Amino acid sequence: MKSNFYIGWQNDTPDRNKKALKALLIPLFILLPLLAGLIVRYETEFNDHQFELGTLREFQGIYFNSPRPVLLLDPTFVPEGYDREALLLGFGKFGADPTMKALEEKEGRFEGKRIRLRGTLLKGDGKILIELSEGKASLLNVERSITYPMRQTTPKAVALQGEIIDPKCWFGAMKPGEGKVHKSCAIRCISGGIPPVLRVKKTAVTSIIFSKEKGTKTSMKPFLNLLLNPLPFKGKFTIKTDGMLYALPQKK
Amino acid sequence: MSVTYQSVLWNAQKKRYHRYMWLGIFILLFSFIGFQLYFHPTVTLETLIIRSSSMVAVSLLHFILIIGPLCRLNDAFLPLLYNRRHMGVTLFFFAALHGIFSLIQFHSLGNTSILESLFFSNEKYLQISQFPFQVLGFFALLIFFLMAATSHDFWLKNLGPKIWKSLHMLVYLAYGLVIMHVALGILQYDSHPGYWIGLVMGFLGVGGLHLSAGLKAMFKLKAKQNQLKEEGFFAVCTVEEIEDNAAKTFFIENENIAVFKYENQLSAVNNVCRHQIGPLGEGKIVDGCITCPWHGYQYQPHNGQSPPPFSEKLTTYYLKVIKNTVWVHPKPNPEGTAVEPVKI
Known about the structure:
A: 252 residues; alpha+beta; five-stranded mixed β-barrel; B: 344 residues; five-stranded antiparallel β-sheet; four-stranded antiparallel β-sheet
């Protein structure tokens, strides 16, 4: 006799259980894609910045380590519509300073020299960043014949408002590279020596990299606190170069 | 039921259960990934994995939590309960995928260890809006791990059903942690009101079903009070009120008792299954044995013992029938004590 009582270890499911499950599961399976679509549709849009993870490119340009390690790229190495000045970053959540310092100790100083590097490209908002993915092996060549002069800086004071972010993630390493979900990562990046960035909205200036005085060690603590502060950051800065913008909070 | 431990006791129903479970998961997973690539083509692979795995895990968690009350309200849904543990282990798999990828993405390759970064990168523990939400998800994942790791009957047997059940009731704490993890995390970034409505509706759905099932049980219990008492026996019902090969349950003097009618006789045993504290009184007599509606564990009605070679035992109770009224003595006999069935 076929029982109407459900027993899990038997092979057959009674008809009344089958009917109930059909009534529950068929609408559920129809609703699931609708639910997924609705959730995805209203997500905050990601930016179109790119991190070419896994792809190494060669770059050539003049190296400057002040106020931050950068490569003033030769024009042939610059994608159209992007600034020549590329901020150098370390692998993972680290700045490029330790790698470049170790390389200069080994190879001799090469600030102002044309160098060739291999790294991973990050780009967005007209800015280029290069991750030294291979650490000290990233340096391929140093042309020692010519030393280019230090860049002329034209300090000027400006008042700006924006959000403190970490540039590596904002310029493509992560989607999203901002906001509450990304906060802990941004703290790690800035703690690891990646220069904090002030993203300024509604002006021609997109981002400003906080700098440090040559030969001084700037504490990252205030920036970490700012990262945790959801309010827009206001401040007066002295802009030090005209390429990628570097700023120091003005001395009181 | 099985005498020896096996990783999974597959049968036709269990295979069907798995097929439908994975069908639902694949529908959700691939529609989510498809919509993500359509609406947000610049999404990274890591973000896609983190978000899609969390979507599946949170959906499974809600579904798992409604199975219990759904079955209490309508026993036609019992097949969902029978293999709920498989769904729980699957939930852990997706939650772990989400957690591991998030830890790697947000906390690895930095100047501290991953766990130090998780707990101390953001130390705003006293601010609701800035609260380090990932910590909440981490503790929820630990609970899911404990539950998945002890989900097998080996642990149920060795920990005992009460400890095992208490451990697995931590799922409600994990649910609270997940809700807070979502509310203080992604919803602080994607703050469309629809997300909040969805989260609150999910919570109300789970809570509402639990409340309804609780109220149903409470009304059932209240209806059975004010019983007559005589020489330690309580008058509980008439013989006709108990269906053949089924039971009626009574809560007397803190004893949860099921009185079964079968083969023109009555027997009373404890209403709580020794396997997972299931409601035996909602079961049936199958092949001469009381059969639990949750997982099919069986007991002989006259002595409360599982048929050999199984070893589970229930307490039994004395009964009598006077003028068609069933009387129950709530003093439990030692587990497995044979009591002569009362002829009717």
